[in-house]
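Record 1 of the preview.
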Amino acid sequence: MNTSRDKDEKFFRSVVEFLSKFKDRDTVKFEYTTDILRFLVRENILFLDPVRRIVKPQSRLDLLAIRRILNDNV
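->
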């Protein structure tokens, strides 16, 4: 049975997987926008540059926080 909790956990894992791309880079190229990317931009975690087709954290401090969280969960 697919519950909303399962859906939330799957979404959370997808968000962490996307953010893990910033472990060794400052920017990430994208082909198209996804629900995860829209969520991270809407929550002001990432900045989307549609002209250069890249996303990056809103600030250097956000990038450091993302990396810290990723390192703590490994």
